[in-house]
Amino acid sequence: MTKRIIHHPVLGTIDEADTVFFTFDNHKYQALRNESIAAALMVNGVRTLRHHEESGTPRGIYCNIGHCFECRVTVDGKQGMRACLTPVQEGMAVTSGGKLLTSVRDWRSQNE
User: Fold this and answer.
1) SS3 letters across 57-101
2) Alpha carbons 42 and 31: distance in angstroms, whole number
3) When comparing pLDDT for 100 and 47, which is higher?
4) pLDDT-based confidence at 12, cuts 50/70/90?
5) How many Cα atoms occupy the beta-carbon half-sphere of 106 within 13 Å?
6) What sign does the dihedral 54-57-61-63 (CA atoms) show?
7) Are 92 and 74 in contact (CB under 8 A)?
8) Would you state the torsion angle of the CA atoms of residues 50, 51, 52, 55, taken in this order, to the nearest 10 degrees?
9) With contact defined as beta carbons under 8 Å apart, do 60 and 48 qualify?
């Protein structure tokens, strides 16, 4: 494995010998137990975590501290999980978000 963040300010210390497997968009990846999903995906060469709901442009890690919500993914069916703050666990199924089927509009009267 490559250099990893093994002392995370939120997730704590990570044991480099304790590896797990998880899936991202149905592809199997190896990670260190309790490292963030975002870190595990970066180590495995995945940079796009989701696509913008309206434009469809690729989105990835931006702030990496949980403030920007750009790294939202679905984890075991739960939407909107921040990949930068969610620890990886064995067998976890992570999926990216895609472009919405219809455009999002501001329905307030002044924007018609």
Assistant:
1) CEECCCCCCCCCCCCEEEECCEEEEECCCCECCCCCEEECCCCCC
2) 10
3) 47
4) confident
5) 5
6) negative
7) no
8) 180
9) yes
